[in-house]
Amino acid sequence: MALQRTVDKWKTKRWFTVYAPKAFKEAKVCEIPAAEDKQAVNRKIKVSLEQLTHNPQHSFTNVVIQITDVNGDAAHTKVVMIEQVYAYIRSLVRRYRSVASTVAKVSTKDNVSVVFKVLAVTRQRSTSSRLKGIRSEMQEFIKGYAKDNDYDSIVGTVVDGKFQSELAGRLAHITPLNKVEVRRLEVS
Do 151 and 112 touch, CB atoms closer than 8 A? Predict the structure, then answer.
């Protein structure tokens, strides 16, 4: 009986260079191995936002990107989720402060279904009626904002912090706020 030759699977694989979406100037993220183009498509990669923007203030934010298509050895991606690191969220919540959080599932202008998880931290303890007002105002703002903007511009404004500052300005009349943060933004 003759022995069968086995081919090492790693020798059949090619390396694909993964590039960030256009919002992040298509920066090189990493390289991944795959035997075929089809195997690389739909893979998800978790990257620190600091790696994409080169801004140290973004070190507490992670971005999950998904490969949409492969051209040659270049893999192009889209943003699937942006989330804050749990330790950062815990550092915001302290004694003698109140927290109002909300989850809003909305559809954007270009019909992408998105889930916003937003957190607002007050400067001092607040009554439950004020926290309820903050939550309802956040829901209303998020629905209107998503209706007026497409997904790519929403991702850009969340990364820049413009979304958070607009929302904080809208909530300031209820009670003084210490921080408004998008805890998680994901495509559903």
Answer: yes
Same domain, 21 and 109: no
- Helices 128-148 and 162-171 cross at an angle (nearest 10°) of 140
CA-nearest of 118, 116, 120, 117 to 92 is 120
Asked whether the predicted pLDDT for residue 61 surpasses 80, the reply is: yes
Burial of 7 (0-12, 13-18, 19+ CB in 10 A): exposed
Tell me what the mean pLDDT of segment 113-134 comes to.
96
Where do the DSSP E strands lie in 35-176? 44-48, 61-71, 74-84, 99-107, 113-122
- Domain termination site, one of 26, 49, 84: 84
Q: From CA 103, how far away is CA 146, in angstroms rounded?
A: 14
The answer on pLDDT for 128 being more than 70 is yes
Among candidate residues 57, 54, 47, 58, the one with its CA nearest the CA of residue 20: 47
Across residues 152-173, what is the average pLDDT? 95
pLDDT for the residue numbered 2? 65
Longest CA–CA span in the chain (Å) reads 84
Q: Give the CA-trace dihedral at 138, 143, 145, 147, to 10 degrees.
A: 180
Domain boundary among 31, 59, 84: 84
CA atoms of 31 and 40, how far apart (whole Å): 11
On whether the pTM is more than 0.85, the answer is yes
